[in-house]
Design brief:
The complex is a heterodimer of chains A (335) and B (333).
Chain A: H1 2-29, H2 34-39, H3 46-55, H4 62-74, H5 88-123, H6 128-142, H7 145-159, H8 182-189, H9 194-229, H10 232-239, H11 244-281, H12 287-296, H13 300-328
Chain B: E1 4-15, E2 18-30, E3 35-39, H1 46-54, E4 61-64, E5 67-70, E6 73-74, H2 80-86, E7 91-94, H3 98-101, H4 108-119, H5 124-137, H6 143-146, H7 156-167, E8 174-178, H8 186-203, E9 206-211, H9 214-220, E10 223-228, E11 231-237, H10 238-243, H11 248-255, H12 294-298, H13 327-332
Parallel strand pairs in B: 3-9, 3-10, 7-8, 8-9
Antiparallel strand pairs in B: 1-2, 1-4, 1-5, 5-6, 10-11
The chains are: A mainly alpha (335), B alpha/beta (333).
């Protein structure tokens, strides 16, 4: 197992280099000059412009700039934001808990509803529950999430007034972050109503971000279950006189989980991409919004560093998924 | 009262091309402690009829019967929950493929204890002790260690022993074995059959053995019922069947046994079992039967009397192995 993890870690190296190269070249391929953007509407003199070009190393060949950047990365230095002058590393980790909290909640939402929905659909194959659930999943999957977010805001925030429209917590509450997770910190702070406020802020973004993973997980669970339900060991389980709930929920689901876990791992990438839209719509102070703002500002170090860190997260999640396979189904455990 | 008394069992599958009758008017009777062999080619409906009794058919199947009694209780009148109390406890089944019949995600110990938890009041420790005892009974060496193994870590023969241990966990009164040795090596086959017969003798359970191996039938069964294309075409005590088959299909099956062969080439039965689309109007075996006449092709035969092995045949075999038109059949038809 350890050898497997180490060998997988080795494959991270080319992926890691690829991500640095792609993020480095793509942001430079975009039209626009970070120094002009920084100067804003006031503009700046030619001499000052040349000075800044030299200061940021833009006068060197692009290849040299890349190597400099890579050298920094290897030493744990992701550079400083052009805009805030703070290290990318610090910015990322002050914002990441917000995204992580939102992503975890969205994933829990998607798995908690998607797995049962897929199981119910598979067990009632071709009947009304199956058709209803799978049509709903298709709608959920096809819907643009910004539109879905706006619909939910109109209904729950606008018409019903149940949830706030933006932010992580009401301005009435203030406490120092401990974990960075608002749900936990609000509880730790002991302030009355803080947790409810944090939860109500989190509700809509969670639903919006979790909708596509929910739909994908439901459909994947259904198809995996259908395959498994025809297996001999399901017949054996039924021949033992086990209840349908146990046959489907234990014997079938455990086997159907492999493709579902694969999809969940892949969805983490989608989730972080979806977080960009969701965070922008709900003004959620996470890395999604941070990345979008940085792209508009041509804040090269932030875009490069942020992408690299996000890619690393996705790689780690997928490694975890590979390790999980062996725990779910010992037959495919690597020796 | 018979242990199992099934009358006129019919199973139909709903398929895209319309209903398909896999079992047609089959009677099954089984006394306590008896060994019944059910033989027939692939597609003769022998497995399906047993799965119907166990209630294990997929939802596309419709099961009808005039009577479906187990220990005098009509299975059709039980709710699914009531039926699950019988299935796996008083009536158990083992299958053809031991490797795929056990769940790869759970240890065999988990799977056998699960059966115990479902049907007995034993606590965790007692279940473990019982599982060890069962593994010893079915001849699994080092049971304590084997309980922790996963199915893929054991051989097919060992897995079939686990399946048997699981099936007999609650001392069933009836064990249905669906070709339990087909997927195993020849040397293991004999061991598994001996084990089944031994358990049956010790526990006094009835055994319904589905097979297409006439050699197995001769060694194990007390009574044999021969199925063809969803019908039971003949039923006799084992000695009688081997000495004097009445149905030409039974005769042809026996003639195909290597030990009975008289020429260098084994005799075969030409053709295949009729499927959904080529079901004959008359006797289902008529297209492949050497003795078929016009009436065979025109009219389905009804079972003859018990003295004729209840053979579904217009021209049952005589003692010298030739087909002869039954005079009384001609009058009634």
């Amino acid at each position: 197992m350890l050898g497997f993890v180490l060998s997988r870690l080795l494959t991270f190296i080319p992926t890691f280099l690829g991500v640095t190269l792609i993020s480095f070249s793509f942001i430079r391929a975009l039209p626009g000059d970070p120094i002009i953007v920084m100067a804003g509407e006031r503009g700046l003199t030619d001499e000052r412009y040349q000075e800044l070009v030299r200061q940021y190393g833009f006068d060197k060949p692009v290849f040299q700039q890349y190597l400099d950047y890579l050298w920094g990365v290897l030493h744990g230095d992701l550079g400083q934001s052009f805009v805030t002058k703070r290290p990318v590393w610090d910015e990322f980790f002050s914002l990441f808990p917000a995204t992580l909290e939102l992503s975890i909640c969205a994933m829990i939402f998607a798995v908690a509803l998607g797995l049962p929905a897929g199981v119910i659909a598979a067990v009632n194959r071709g009947k009304l529950p199956d058709r209803a659930l799978m049509s709903a999943a298709l709608v959920g999957y096809s819907m643009p999430i910004f539109w879905w977010a706006l619909l939910l805001i109109i209904l729950f925030s606008g018409m019903l007034g149940w949830t706030p429209v933006s932010g992580r917590i009401s301005l009435l509450y203030y406490f120092e972050p401990v974990t960075g997770f608002m749900l936990i910190d609000s509880l730790l702070s002991g302030q009355k109503g803080a947790f409810a406020s944090a939860a109500s802020h989190l509700a809509l973004p969670t639903v919006v971000l979790g909708t596509i993973p929910l739909a994908v997980i439901a459909r994947q669970t259904r198809s995996a279950m259908l395959e498994v339900l025809g297996e001999d060991y399901i017949r054996t389980a039924r021949a033992k006189g086990l209840s349908p709930a146990r046959v489907n929920g234990v014997h079938a689901l455990r086997n159907a989980l492999i493709p579902v876990v694969t999809v969940i791992g892949l969805m983490v990438g989608t989730l972080l991409a979806g977080a960009i839209l969701t965070e922008t719509i709900f003004s959620w102070p996470g890395i999604g919004k941070w990345m979008v703002d940085s792209i508009f500002r041509r804040d090269y170090p932030v875009v490069q560093g942020g992408l690299l860190l996000i890619a690393t997260m996705v790689m780690i999640v997928n490694l975890t998924v590979d390790v999980l396979y062996g725990f779910i189904n010992p037959k495919i455990r690597r020796r | 009262m018979s242990l199992l008394d099934i009358r006129n069992l019919t199973v139909e599958f709903a398929t895209a091309a319309g209903p398909f009758r896999a079992v047609e008017g089959v009677d099954v009777t089984l006394e306590k402690g008896e060994v019944l062999a059910i033989v027939g080619e692939s597609g003769s409906g022998k497995s399906v009829s047993m799965l119907a009794i166990m209630g294990l058919l997929p939802w596309t199947a419709t099961v009808t019967a005039d009577r479906m009694a187990f220990e005098g209780r009509d299975l059709r009148e039980l709710s699914p929950a009531q039926r699950r109390k019988i299935i796996g406890k008083d009536m158990a089944m083992i299958f053809q493929e031991p490797m795929s019949s056990l769940n790869p995600c759970f240890t065999v110990g988990f799977q056998i204890k699960e059966a115990l938890r479902q049907h007995t009041d034993l606590d965790r420790k007692a279940r473990h002790a019982r599982a060890v005892e069962l593994f010893e009974q079915v001849g699994i060496p080092a049971p304590e260690r084997r309980l922790k193994a996963y199915p893929h870590q054991m051989s097919g023969g060992m897995n079939q022993r686990v399946m048997i241990a699981m099936a007999i966990a609650c001392n069933p009164k009836l064990l249905i074995a669906d070709e339990p040795t087909t997927a195993l090596d020849v040397t293991i086959q004999a061991q598994i059959l001996d084990l089944l017969l031994d358990l049956r003798r010790r526990n006094g359970m009835a055994l319904a053995l589905i097979t297409h191996d006439m050699g197995v039938v001769a060694e194990t069964a007390e009574r044999v019922s021969v199925h063809y294309a969803g019908q039971k075409v003949e039923e006799q005590p084992v000695e009688g069947l081997f000495a004097r088959p009445f149905h030409p299909y039974t005769g042809a099956l026996l003639a195909a046994l290597p030990e009975r062969a008289t020429s260098r080439r084994l005799p075969t039965i030409p053709g295949v079992v009729p499927g959904q689309f080529d079901r004959p109007a008359g006797c289902l075996f008529a297209p492949r039967c050497r003795h078929a006449s016009d009436i065979c092709r025109a009219r389905r035969p009804e079972p003859l009397g018990p003295e004729m092995g209840r053979a579904r045949c217009h021209t049952p075999l005589t003692a010298d192995g030739n087909g002869v038109m039954q005079p009384q059949r001609m009058v009634t038809t």
